[in-house]
Specification:
By secondary structure, the chain is mostly helical. The protein has 2 domains: 211 residues, no CATH class; 60 residues. The protein is 68% helix and 0% strand. It is built from 14 helices and no strands. Helix 4 crosses helix 6. It is globular, with a radius of gyration of 20 Å. The two termini are 23 Å apart.
């Protein structure tokens, strides 16, 4: 199973399509703060402020999810089109095979997110200082971010790592839905539209007050201190344990539910799994 996962990830990463997806992801990460780079005042701020501007745009977040989904949707569709499941599934067993698919989707998502953000932060480091002391964080946007305490505790790398994780976790949840949708349609166009459909559905349920906040991925993985109303008394530090762990629990729960759902779907599909 491990060899299969490594080969699938390698075959996807070492392609021109992967380079194009990462390039597109980087482009949409940088678009929101292009104008900031032309302001003289940016000479006095750090990378954290410039970089996090792009993470606070709902439209940009949707674009990033969609771009990452292009890579995984293409991987899913290609796998089905080439008939890999016909000879791989019987040999590995359905549990190992579908668990491998879930892991591959997660790995590909985080590779795109981590690599893209690392390139952005590295390039910004040539013109702006890396966050090093609380005094440099004079913008309210940083203190209002989830786990902004990491800035106050002078742990910049943990601050970057946490926000990148939340970005990757949110995208992973959407990517796994694409995997489920592939049971019903192998069309690339259908798989490509999964992020937009999910976003519209989530907003619709939220407007109708049918979606609890702790089940809304847009809020669970938000970079703002939204969880403090549940896990603290106004300051996230008061409930920092649960507020930090909850997004991880949400991601793990989503992975488990999606995996079990895939197994159930496979049992109800015609012989061979995918139609």
């Amino acid at each position: 199973m491990i060899k299969y996962i490594i080969n699938e990830v390698k075959n996807t990463v070492f392609t021109l399509y992967f380079v194009l997806v990462v390039s597109g992801y980087i482009l949409f990460l940088t678009v929101p703060f292009f104008q900031e780079l032309f302001f003289d005042r940016t000479n006095d701020v750090n990378i954290a402020y410039i970089w996090t501007i792009s993470t606070n745009h709902t439209s940009i977040s949707l674009a990033l999810v969609t771009i990452a989904n292009l890579l995984v949707a293409d991987f899913i569709a290609r796998d089905i089109r080439q008939g890999v499941i016909q000879y791989t599934l019987p040999r590995m067993g359905k549990k190992k095979y579908f668990f491998s698919k879930v892991l591959i989707c997660i790995i590909l998502t985080f590779v795109v997110v981590i690599l893209s953000n690392a390139i952005i932060i590295y390039c910004l480091s040539f013109s702006f200082p890396l966050l090093t002391t609380p005094i440099e964080s004079n913008e309210n946007i940083l203190y209002n971010l989830t786990n902004g305490f990491l800035i106050r505790n002078n742990s910049p790398m943990w601050f970057y790592a946490w926000l990148i994780f939340k970005q990757g976790a949110e995208i992973t949840c959407v990517i796994l839905v694409s995997l489920v949708v592939s049971f019903f349609s192998q069309s690339k166009l259908v798989l490509y539209t999964v992020p937009l459909t999910m976003n519209v559905l989530t907003i619709f349920l939220d407007k109708l007050k049918l979606l609890p906040m702790l089940l809304d991925p847009r809020k669970v993985f938000s970079f703002y201190n939204i969880l403090d109303r549940y896990f603290g008394g106004g300051e996230l530090e008061e409930g920092i344990g649960l507020a930090t762990v909850y997004p991880i629990i949400y991601l793990m729960g989503t992975i488990l539910i999606i995996y079990l759902f895939i197994i159930i779907l496979h049992q109800r599909q015609v012989e061979g799994g995918y139609r």
